[in-house]
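In response to a reviewer's request, we include the raw inputs and outputs for one of the modeled complexes. The two entities were modeled together in a single run.
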Amino acid sequence: MPARLAQRPAPPASLVVRGTRVLDPAAGIDEVRDLVVAGGRIGGPLPKDAEEVDGAGLVAVPGFVDPHVHLRTPGREDLEDIATGTRAAAAGGFVTIVAMPNTAPVVDTAPVLRALLERGEREAVVRVGFYAAITVGQAGRELTEQAELAETGACGFTDDGHPVADAQVMRRALQYQRITGLPLVLHEEDPSLSARGVMHEGAVASRLGLAGIPSISESVAVARDAVLAEYEGGRIHVCHVSAAETVEEIRRARERGVAITAEVTPHHLVLTDREVEALDPTRHKMNPPLREESDRRALIAALREGVLDCVATDHAPHAADEKEVPFEEAPFGVTGLETAFAACHTHLVRTGDLPLETLVRRMGADAAAAVGLPAPTLADGAPADVALIDPEARWVVGEGGFQSRSRNSAFLGEELVGRVVMTIAGGAMAWRS
Amino acid sequence: MSRRSLISISDLDRSEIARILRVSNRFAEVMTRDIKKVPTLRGRTVINLFLEPSTRTSTSFELAGKRLSADVINVKGSGSSIEKGETLKDTVITLGSYAPDVLVIRHASVGACQLAARHTDAAVVNAGDGKHEHPTQTLLDLYTIEREVGPLDGLHIAFVGDVAHSRVARSGIRGFQAMGARVTLIAPPTLIPRDAEDALGVAASTDIRDVADADVVYVLRMQLERMGPGGFVPSLREYAATYGIGHARLRPGQRVMHAGPINRGVEITGELADDPATLIERQAANGMIVRMAVLYDLLAEPAEAAASAAPLGVVAA
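The model returned the following structure tokens for the whole complex.
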């Protein structure tokens, strides 16, 4: 049962990017040449009236895939909708995104999913897919009608925002996965350990007097679900890994053959709990929380080695009002689609921590593979999914606004280096700066 | 240093703390007069915004402002628009529109004062924000220790009990250290913050017998209202037996402090709480004096604050 991806019909793009660095590590392509897009596909004979783009100094890569975004639709279209969320994605170089089902109502029945896909076909400027909930209402008790949801086109199942706390329910979901074949995408958190925490449990929380979310609340949950997946022969994808202990659990599970993939967010790769000292929940309150430098180094190393498969933004729009409250009272979450590449490029690639080629893979082909979606490629004949990047462009996050309807970026006000200047998604022009 | 805020005890360096303690001494003298009111802050406005229960801090801030002749307005959570669901930001903006000079804030959440400071031109004074900080408590504790025990330099102070939930301890640790004192935390392992020794630069112990080394034993209230379900200690009875402070656990010459309110028979025996040899009542009395000094320090002109002769003339009643 293939996942369905929706996108608004648009005229196919035809253009040539002259003299650009064409970089598709998964396809073994890295050369300076012209990149032709003709009739919405890579390569082929160039139409006579095709636009010419000067690609000198730019890098053309396969468009990015984000397996973890919150589009707040249905229910909170004041924060984000499919049009604004996919525009933000396009501005960040993404050509495919998958939205989480923690909406109002929750995406836990086929009619809700169907309505979203129809809306995606009218509004989405890049491909959008939707996960359905693992449990009804994401309440953690009864499984959703997953066979029907899979038939309708769900990309997978997740209770993201909430862990599946009950081990038996998780076990049933893993058993039922044999019918759907779709990934179980897991927000890993033992709620009895994270309790009322609002930031990473560590020295900074001790100084600030804030209740901590210990790293073990994540690793304990991953350990449990890896054991369950192993026992049931299932496959799990771990959301937003934040802690060094979790990396070790994933490494150990994989070594013994568990089918486990994992993602990490740009903010966990770039920032630490020291940021929380400013007590600004708009930028620095999210779950899982920003952790320590030693965790950050472990995440970077794991992403480099592939123990963590991919980057995912966990793009989580919130209204300014919701966030302009004391730190403890603010909701969790930061946006990320428009800054993902630039933040990683600035703080990982330019610092020598991660090769550009690896970042491009982890944001593209590897992200797609982790959740079983087709991987964008620059190979001739493929549908045109291209992000054209100016790696030297400097810009200040938030200056000139956001495509997203929300502005709760962890990088708000910061200067980043590297910017997506053009995105072609599914053969159509989706973004030009 | 007008219009500076006092949100964390770390906002003050050693010399600034010393200055506030010196000014406190002068206000202590005023309190010995028949008429305990001076014209120093006439024409200034202080708004006390107390959104969490308080007796000592709210009363002493109100009296401090009034005895300095400032106009003092008190806003409490109950009976205000907060009850109608107004956000802290909107409340602060509204109060700010009346152009107060100082906004004193007590709030249940960490970071409330930082938020308020982003939305007002008034000087913000933190009168306790959740488990985070309570800087004026630390100033009055420092003042009390200096007056009753002696110079802080080289003194050893032990906080005993619920460190995890204590803003008194969190500000106290930094303030005492800034003045040269050594701090030890003595608490059940469940109530010592993670990485406390590194994070806070203290020694930490789970053995109550270690109070013997301290010059001052600072007993912390068991903050049952902040603990929530789950239980940090098996029972208050066991806590009292294992960590409660009474005469039997003290050696002669040790001084005992407690910021109040007291849970008698839990963290401190009733007998010890009533013993006039403790500093507990002095702390309460000094609270008002030190808060006068804090308001004075925030509002007096820099030249005025620097001058040793503060305008302490008596106001005709």
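As requested, we also summarize the result in words. Chain A has 15 helices and 17 strands. The CA atoms of residues 369 and 427 of chain A lie 20 Å apart.
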